[in-house]
Task: structure prediction
Amino acid sequence: MKTPAMFMPVLRSMTSLAMSDCPYRLTSCVWEITLACCFLCKYCGSKAGKARPDELSTDECLDVCSQLKELGCRRVNLIGGEVFIRCDWKTIVERLTDDGIRVTIITNGFLFTDAIIRDLKDVNIESVAVSLDGIEPVHDKYRQQGSYARAIKAIETLISAGIITTVLTTLNAENIMTLEPFYQILMQYPIAAWQLQACSPMGNAAVMGIDYRFDPHTVIDFVVRHREESAFAIGIADNIGYFTADESLIRGDRRGQRVFPGCGAGLSVIGIDSVGNVKGCESMYDERFNEGNLRSTTLREIWESPDAFAYNRRFTPSMLTGKCSSCEMGAYCAGGCRSYNYFTHQKLYEYPNCAKNTGR
Result:
């Protein structure tokens, strides 16, 4: 297979790295500002519900905002728990957007009020993503009775207020079977985009024994089939794929030019949890991936440490295992999503459900 230029890999291996010569540029951050949530979702990866007793204070969060600006971070995605349960969320967002950082928020849509809408408009939010996992009976089964109706109402309210609205769907063996009717429902609303991501067996999903397995071709075929006719962009998250003939059509890029660049954890993105732990990706929800804590170390020190994020920064194709080790695209996808790999079979450099190497 001839490798197109767009598949060229990002810089990954830099084993002798001086802090002052750090070649990695932080572009985006996923920040869990609280673990408090009004739901106890059956597949919540972080087991959200109650706030941690020692979550970062407002002043500490504002300092984190300054550190993100200092490192040149361009986008922050705020998550929970449920972001709007934290009473100072507006203060945090305002600091970020005042510093020129684009901010998006993921919400379950359950707690929306007129005051929240006014605040979102005041702080110049880029967009709000509402978690909606399928048709009503399926969504409510995994989240909470009545939550589907509240999420739909939130979508309607956000759109009416002129706020860019997207939908985020977490797929498992059950709700993947309802993609078609769910798509028809979403087509009734002028949302900007719909992202499909795979449920990972972590947190509550592991405890509850959720069947997270599905054929990735089902999702890929669905997206390819509808991408041209859809009124909104449809994209597949970085934990589904990779490098089938349709790779450039499924990542939400209307031009058909985006491909999976390999796991970006610690290369261009980071995750921060509500007590200040820093990891390469907020989906790598295990203490072994904590690189430091912002109460004892600055973000710059963590980011520029020559020993940080070694699983990605010191990656070489020789580390690939299983089918990934013999795949001609292994050097480019680097074995897929680190988080999904770890929680499904603890092998960081082997994606167990690769569409290229399974099925068709």
Observations:
- Strands lie at 28-32, 75-79, 102-107, 127-131, 165-171, 193-198, 233-236, 269-272, 277-279, 292-293.
- The longest strand covers residues 165-171.
